[in-house]
Amino acid sequence: MSLPSGHTMGHTDQVAQRRARCSDIYQRRLSSRSEKVNPGIHSSSHQQQDGEAAMHGAHMDSSVRYTPYAISPYNRKGSFRKQDQTHVNMEREQKPPQRRMEGNMPDGTLGSWFKITVPFGIKYNEKWLLNLIRNECSVPFIPVEFHYENMHASFFVENASIAYALKNVSGKIWDEDNEKISIFVNPAGIPHFAQKELKSEKVEKIKLAMNQQCDVSQEALDIQRLPFYPDMMTRDTKMASNPGKCMAASLHVHEENIPMVMSAVGMDKWKGTEPGEKCADRSPVCTTFSDNSSNINSILELFPKLLCLDGQQSPRPTLCGTEAHKTLPTCKGSFFGSEMLKNLVLQFLQQYYLIYDSGDRQGLLSAYHDEACFSLSIPFNPEDSAPSSLCKYFKDSRNIKILKDPYLKGELLRHTKRDIVDSLSALPKTQHDLSSFLVDMWCQTEWMLCFSVNGVFKEVEGQSQGSVLAFTRTFIATPGSSSSLCIVNDKLFVWDTSHQGTQSALFTLVPTAFSSVPAFSQEQQKMLPS
Amino acid sequence: MRKCRSHWSQGDRERHQRRSYYYEGPHTSHSSCGGRTREEVVTPPLPEHAAVGSPMAMSVDFKTYVDQACRAAEEFVNIYYETMDKRRRALTRLYLDKATLIWNGNAVSGLDALNNFFDTLPSSEFQVNMLDCQPVHEQATQSQTTVLVVTSGTVKFDGNKQHYFNQNFLLTAQSTPNNTVWKIASDCFRFQDWSSS
């Protein structure tokens, strides 16, 4: 029934195909209901938002339980929790964590299990899907315990490099509807073989391999135990007291590139244990180790793109790769495309503000294109009840996040040079501090220059006289006559720094755009024609 | 039958916005990548250029472009910051291949560099308080429909204190018969208190 991707079908074919698929899906859902498995580590909030409840604790069917860390039901004595803890204590005494994690894979690689999930995989036939993946995957793999889980299809693989190769397949395969198929990879506990009669030769091979890693000190397990995957969450009491700290950082999920997601399971997943539901069922990667640091180290070796775990951003140079510690890039001063453009822009700004501050802004008519646009905004601060120095800008402020009136939306965008200059003339008189200017030239083409100016100015009259305001003004300009610039778009944003305490910073000796350009003195400015 | 956009009721607008945000319509014939993802800013197709000449024609044109710009800007800002906060790895899908970013004075150019850059930024929580936009004059863009989008608000990067920020985007339209897809051609981001950080 499967077609190579890209094959086009007639409409009636499509309908028939769809019907057949729907009935397949129905069948798969029926069968999956009787064999619920607990998903691996839960993915980030992104998937939660999708309403993909399948990725989170499935409803436990009491007949079959997926308990990767538990002693198998056949050997269970007394309550699970108690037993698990005993089990845990046994391990700790007998083997240091490090060795256990590394395992004894025949080829020396780190042995651990990964759950491979195809979202909405319930649409796909198992064989078809696995073949599709195999064709694209750079390494051969043995899918273990392929199953459908709510809307998704999942299976396990037992090797980090295989998991990594499968991750790379995501987004490179398409289904019959030409939809990209994503593949999610998550670390997982041991698939529960004991519950399922798997007679295939492949599975026997796996069991053999697993036996080789048998920790002889372990007993009472049906399955030979594999090394635990290092955990990302601590158990029980720690969780309860420090829910925030115990969550691994929820990470960026990208549908195409596999998220190496360390889950951020909501606290509600830990609360409200249903009677009979075992702790380990919901958290297959519960730790048995008290020492988290070596766990984290191993994880990061495998998944170098991960952020730091446990929501901590503090650097751990001995443990984490540099990728794990993310800092902000250093903030720098003005950015100009080139020296020539820098001079052009600075000259323009000098002239512009000379006129702007002169008391008569009509002189700016020559700076604007006939059909230029201008608008201004001030911050929207609902908490601001006190009258501020920004009140004079309030009526002209265009903030389409809160402004829904279509008439005003239109009105407050000034159009044509005449309207613009009239509108500018009505704004309070100012004195700009050119030495405070910082310029970002962020787009340039042969036809235009786009740059933003940041700086401060003083109000020179009226009630707010003397108050200092900050601004960012974005100009888009085209080449004008005689190597000048012609403004086609002008966007002004004014705010009051006094709330932020940054006012003084702007007046400190920070290298600014104009530091190498002599500023006009007051006397000089008065002498220039308006 | 499509109504003139200015006659759309609030309900129409909301329905349309929902539709274009979670676009699940039929694939366009030249779409090579399967279904649409949520990391795309999509608006209705752009209007044909009305005959220029009379002032009336010009003002009708302009108003239409202003509306178009507003729609694109609102849609864009929602998607952009949510993607930045929650699906960081998908963020560069919103950028043109040759897009450039000036981030607090640091220049980043091209998708590869952008991918690396956003990868190295700590996780973020953005709160946008101000949004404004303007259609960019065609003389500056050689008739490539472009919108200037300006935002401001606060951002908290993991491990850092909260900052006020200002951001500017140039969005360009890529038109198909069915819709318009907007992508970032250029991006300029600054903390308001950049000098003290």
From TrEMBL, chain A:
Taxonomic superkingdom: Eukaryota
Pfam families in alphabetical order: LRR_NXF1-5, NXF_NTF2, Tap-RNA_bind
GO molecular function: RNA binding
Main location: cytoplasm
Record field: compositional bias (Polar residues): 41-50
CDD domains named among the record's database cross-references: NTF2
SUPFAM superfamilies linked: NTF2-like (SSF54427), RNA-binding domain, RBD (SSF54928)
GO biological process: poly(A)+ mRNA export from nucleus
Annotated ranges, domain NTF2: 344-494
GO cellular component: cytoplasm; nuclear RNA export factor complex
Residue ranges, annotated region (Disordered): 1-20, 31-58, 83-106
Keywords from the UniProt entry: Cytoplasm, mRNA transport, Nucleus, RNA-binding, Transport
Biased segments, Basic and acidic residues type: 83-102
Localisation: Cytoplasm; Nucleus
Signal sequence region: none
InterPro entries: LRR_dom_sf, NTF2-like_dom_sf, NTF2_dom, Nuclear_transport_factor_2_euk, Nucleotide-bd_a/b_plait_sf, NXF1/2/3/5-like_LRR, NXF_fam, RBD_domain_sf
Keyword Cytoplasm: yes
Family indicated by similarity: Belongs to the NXF family.
UniProt cross-references to PANTHER family, sorted A to Z: NUCLEAR RNA EXPORT FACTOR, NUCLEAR RNA EXPORT FACTOR 3
Protein name, entry field: Nuclear RNA export factor 3
Organism field: Papio anubis (Olive baboon)
UniProtKB/TrEMBL annotation, chain B:
GO biological process: nucleocytoplasmic transport; protein transport
Region (Disordered): 1-38
Coiled coil recorded as keyword: no
Keywords assigned: Nucleus, Protein transport, Transport
Keyword Coiled coil: no
Residues covered by the NTF2 domain: 72-191
CDD domains per UniProt: NTF2 (cd00780)
GO CC annotations on file: cytosol; nuclear RNA export factor complex; nucleoplasm; perinuclear region of cytoplasm
InterPro entries recorded: NTF2, NTF2-like_dom_sf, NTF2_dom, Nuclear_transport_factor_2_euk
Superkingdom of origin organism: Eukaryota
SUPFAM superfamilies: NTF2-like
Subcellular location: Nucleus
PROSITE patterns: NTF2_DOMAIN
Name this polypeptide is given: Nuclear transport factor 2 like export factor 2
Annotated organism of origin: Papio anubis
